[in-house]
Amino acid sequence: MRRFLQRILTRPVTNIANRFSSKPNLQRVHEALSKLYRHTLENPGKKGLLLSVNSATDRFIIFSDQHKGARNGSDDFILAEPNYLAALDHYYRAGFHFITLGDSEELWENTIWPVKAKNKNTFEAEKKFLAEKRFTKVFGNHDIFWGSDPFAGLHLLSMYGEMLKIYEAVVLRLSIENNTLDLFLTHGHQGDGQSDGNAFSAWFVSRVWAPLQSYLNLNPNTPAASKELKTVHNRFMYEWSKQDQNPVLITGHTHQPVFASLTHLERLYKQLIIAKQQNNEQAVQQINKEIRFRQEEYDYVNSNYTNMKPFYFNTGCCCYMDGDITGIEIADGFIRLIKWKKNNDHSLREVLEEMNLTSLLTT
Fold first, then answer.
1. Do 178 and 292 belong together in one domain?
2. Fewest C-beta in 10 Å: which of 60, 129, 269, 311?
């Protein structure tokens, strides 16, 4: 029966998915982001959370896209779990507030029951933050279940031992040297015709559409799986955040880290320009080698990358195939892109990029 349904339904389902998801519309995305940002400021605590932050003392770690699954062949989180648990232990002990920015659970491929049963260790680690009111959970498109299912609260209660409100966005209102700066955090699927809409469409995607795609073994185009859509997503996010009156934007969704509006490849090209200007041949060779390696996974460079301002950041993800995880830290007056990776039997934190938060005030 499954093969029969795959044969007759794969093409129409794929066409529908591509129609609504693979050709995002800039105006629709920008309108959705603006509406959500305004709603968070005007109705804090409803769809979005507004937090006042002292940039000198408050600390945040932002992870997204864990995609915790059912411990089967399609579970992308299994290899990353050791680094994730080590990172959470570190940040818990260091007093960080933990924000998980969507797609924490893979609820397109799985029902909630096996995900709950197979990920108790990670839920216990997250629960420690919640017990000290240092945990904020945001939903994405692959766990839109949390924002649409009427029984989501009961599942969260069984996972964390207490009621937990799920948000679509968080605004961190930073106090920096007598100035105020908003950081707007959301998963990044806003404006996607397949994943973002009214309550009925959200329910339909989480309970009917996504399970159907999973049953047919389809992987419809999403920014996490498509180089083209990563490019489109990054451009749309950057162009929204650079507009006057809009805040600095932090998302997930693509599984591709972006720091200060630049992907790692774009940053390498900027470093190459500097190395050539300095006639540093050794650095030129090393950077070119790294560029060739990175081009195998992602070869797009924005034509305006040398002039882009630091308005947009992306956490990357917690489900890379090598088990590494990336995230964004906001601490000690800095914003940092960090990676946790295995070194022998230990998980080590590595700072990939950092900049002073005061730099965001002058852009």
1. no
2. 269
Assign residue 17 the CATH number of its domain. 3.60.21
Number of domains in the chain: 2
Q: What does the pLDDT read at residue 343? A: 86
Q: Are residues 295 and 274 in the same domain?
A: yes
Cα distances from 119 to residues 82, 86, 127, in angstroms, run 12, 15, 12
Q: Which ranges constitute the DSSP H helices of the chain?
A: 2-21, 26-42, 81-93, 112-118, 120-131, 145-148, 152-160, 199-204, 210-215, 227-241, 264-277, 281-295
Residues 281 and 169 in one domain: no
Structural domain including 347 reads: 2-261+312-361
| Whether 111 and 69 share a structural domain | yes
Given this model, what pLDDT does residue 37 score? 97
CA pair distance 235, 237, nearest whole angstrom: 6
d(C-alpha 126, C-alpha 105), whole Å: 13
The b/e string for 267-304 (b: 16+ C-beta within 10 A; e otherwise) is bbbebbeebeeeeeeeebeebeeebeebeeeeebbbee
| Residue 184 confidence (pLDDT) | 98
**Residue whose token pair is 């329910």:** 203
Same domain, 178 and 203: yes
Alpha carbon distance 65, 27 (integer Å): 25
Pairwise CA distance, residues 89 & 118, whole Å: 19
pTM reported for the whole predicted model: 0.83
Q: How many CB atoms lie within 10 A of CB 309?
A: 14
β-pair type (166-167, 248-251): unpaired
